[in-house]
Prior knowledge:
This protein is mainly α. It has a single domain, classed as MetI-like (MetI-like fold), CATH 1.10.3720.10. The protein has helices at 3-34, 39-44, 50-59, 66-78, 92-127, 132-146, 149-163, 181-219, 222-229, 234-246, 248-272, 277-287, 290-318. The longest helix has 39 residues, at 181-219.
Amino acid sequence: xxxxxxxxxxxxxxxxxxxxxxxxxxxxxxxxxxxxxxxxxxxxxxxxxxxxxxxxxxxxxxxxxxxxxxxxxxxxxxxxxxxxxxxxxxxxxxxxxxxxxxxxxxxxxxxxxxxxxxxxxxxxxxxxxxxxxxxxxxxxxxxxxxxxxxxxxxxxxxxxxxxxxxxxxxxxxxxxxxxxxxxxxxxxxxxxxxxxxxxxxxxxxxxxxxxxxxxxxxxxxxxxxxxxxxxxxxxxxxxxxxxxxxxxxxxxxxxxxxxxxxxxxxxxxxxxxxxxxxxxxxxxxxxxxxxxxxxxxxxxxxxxxxxxxxxxxxxxxxxxxxxxx
Length: 325
């Protein structure tokens, strides 16, 4: 991959990414402001006087037409200002900054585990097609792929937290204040287990099924048969010849999974009261907090665009034959 070609590709993708994020902002702004419900009624209650109601509406500039609100908002977003949260009474950027690290920990762990074990299971199953191990792996991935994330999260919560008391019911940490560093890390890991398992099951099944299919297809290719005919060891054929070619579509799915994990984290974080972006979006919807909801969507859109860009770059790293003209 030439340096000029890479920079040219990056510039084109940056332009498309900016257009995509812009369309996301405009469409979400119109849809959210057109939806039923009024944030002022949530803030001051339903029994305030009409005069005070209109005063608060003017204070938050909600008395203007949608277009008159949209144009200044777009200008503020370009300057990095996502607005002021009604419910938290602080800038949206500050609220997201506080909530993003827990979501990054949760989703990053789920993506890492699902990618690692999904690729491993797919490769192992592909090397023994039709065997008992392949049948068990296929059945397990079908079950994992079929389970709704929110249902699995509730099932895990009821079984391992409520009945067996093996893991905490909710939250990210215990209320104890006298814990050392090791105890805090252990406590965090215990709180993390069930949310990660509920998110990992679906994506692990998706990666494993795709990896198995592409690996079987690659192992039947002519160049793999030629490599084996030359006397190369099975591990060399598998890891140096088959895996780099079979893994490209899987890299695409892993990159795409980041956007799906953000969507799934809303349900998972709500079930386990995990203090991240998912629970923040749920609270923003409930409170009709337009700036916070829009800011969260903008942040998620930027994250998805970034991860898709990284995925495209990884193509050239994994397979040197990929060129960006």
